[in-house]
Amino acid sequence: MLRRAAAALDEIAAEPGRLRLVDLGERLGLAKSTARRLLVGLVEVGLANVDAQGHFSLGERLLGFGRADGAQIARIFRPTIERVARATGDETVDLSVLRGHRMWFVDQIESSHRLRAVSAVGVRFPLESTANGKAALAALQPADAEAALSRFGPEVAGSLRAEVAEIRRTGIAFDRDEHTAGISAAAIARRTAGDNVVAISVPAPTERFREKQGRIVDALRAAADSPAWAR
């Protein structure tokens, strides 16, 4: 039941205010009656909210925990991501944390370039198609990474296994127009002293990313040596 509740909260967090009972039941593979009992329980204890149209969002009780945790991580890593922004020539830099099976964005340095990639703090992105998500998979212990990969179909899981192995070798993950057409990104991820898996990523319009890829990778490699990971 706890695993089902966690999976339901992951889906709600990924698309807050958009999913109904029937949507969540289908995504979790649950009968309507089982999904209803699960979601009623989450609402009753304040972990989820449901609006008048039947759409679910995360509850204030859960958001309160998350805000405090995310603010602490953002405070620790802020100087590091500021250095990455300067080193990349003022590109956007995102800070995210692995939560369940999504990357939760907790801070961002927004580029001043007219064409730029921007993701709102607080949103959650998938693991399989993002640079920060793939970097996080590579930062997990092998058994945990395999458990995460098992959620995907055989073709996706097989491709990701090969990519995760390469990320572990090089330390850098890439998203080349995978999550959003026209946007590419590079990322690193490490496990912190608090046992969070934290990622730093640099997204940019693909044409500019290709021109600056070496500079972006160098900035991320330097960030990998930041003392923030040990805090």
Task: Describe the 3D structure.
The chain has 231 residues and is of the alpha+beta class. The protein is built from 8 helices and 8 strands. The protein has helices spanning 2-14, 21-28, 32-44, 60-87, 131-139, 142-149, 154-170, 206-223; strands spanning 48-50, 56-58, 93-99, 102-109, 124-126, 173-176, 183-191, 197-205. The strands form 2 sheets. A 6-stranded antiparallel sheet has the order 5-4-3-8-7-6. Strand 3 and strand 4 (102-109) form a beta hairpin. Helix 2 packs across helix 3 and helix 4 crosses helix 8. It is globular and about 55 Å long.
Features:
231 residues; alpha+beta; 6-stranded antiparallel beta sheet; two-stranded antiparallel ribbon; globular
Structural class: alpha+beta
The biggest beta sheet is recorded as: 6 strands, antiparallel
As a percent range, the share of helical residues equals: 40-55%
Overall 3D form: globular
Distance between the termini: 33 Å
Kindly summarize this structure in a few lines.
The chain is α+β, with helices and mostly antiparallel strands. It has helices spanning 2-14, 21-28, 32-44, 60-87, 131-139, 142-149, 154-170, 206-223; strands at residues 48-50, 56-58, 93-99, 102-109, 124-126, 173-176, 183-191, 197-205.
SSE blueprint:
Elements (H helix, E strand, L loop, with lengths): L1 H13 L6 H8 L3 H13 L3 E3 L5 E3 L1 H28 L5 E7 L2 E8 L14 E3 L4 H9 L2 H8 L4 H17 L2 E4 L6 E9 L5 E9 H18 L8
Antiparallel strand pairs: 1-2, 3-4, 3-8, 4-5, 6-7, 7-8
Helix pairs in contact: 2-3, 4-8, 5-7
